What we know:
By secondary structure, the chain is α/β, with parallel strands linked by helices. 37% of the residues lie in helices and 25% in strands. It is built from six helices and eleven strands.
Amino acid sequence: xxxxxxxxxxxxxxxxxxxxxxxxxxxxxxxxxxxxxxxxxxxxxxxxxxxxxxxxxxxxxxxxxxxxxxxxxxxxxxxxxxxxxxxxxxxxxxxxxxxxxxxxxxxxxxxxxxxxxxxxxxxxxxxxxxxxxxxxxxxxxxxxxxxxxxxxxxxxxxxxxxxxxxxxxxxxxxxxxxxxxxxxxxxxxxxxxxxxxxxxxxxxxxxxxxxxxxxxxxxxxxxxxxxxxxxxxxx
Length: 235
């Protein structure tokens, strides 16, 4: 179906289900799907679409950005980088007398201190900063949740994985992705809890997910944040 609202053309499909309320979904191709109770009028469907149009547009724009992929970083002043779920500008402080090239965060800006404005050096410093922050944050959160587990991790490592946010092997060695420092703290908590639960259940059976849900009832929201935002967690 097609409907025009505020000068915008809304194309959508309706699927009638045995349900009590109208739900909205966007598939992997950006198509809007209305899940409606049987005998719902077209007028009621359109009303729900209009009320939720701003939210639908936000999701469609986010999906388009994900499909396009992250913009190539240029490592210039005021370029934005993710840290703990928020975006912050970088400010490059260039001074030949700087003894230790480094990144510092003041709650509003990521300051990068370098002797020379070299893009590869800035990239390396940012990656090192995220590695260090990820290790500190993960170790802190493992300690926080440890009282829920009889077993302690044998080791905690930060790695550069292209496929996993974290892993736990049969020796209870935990590894975590350095990009986690870009995620909100509650999302880091989820990944930590997930891997610590593998110290009890090595696979993803029902007992595993029951334990995860017991410690973090809203864990699916955290999974969704990672699924929706991982594309922009880059340096």
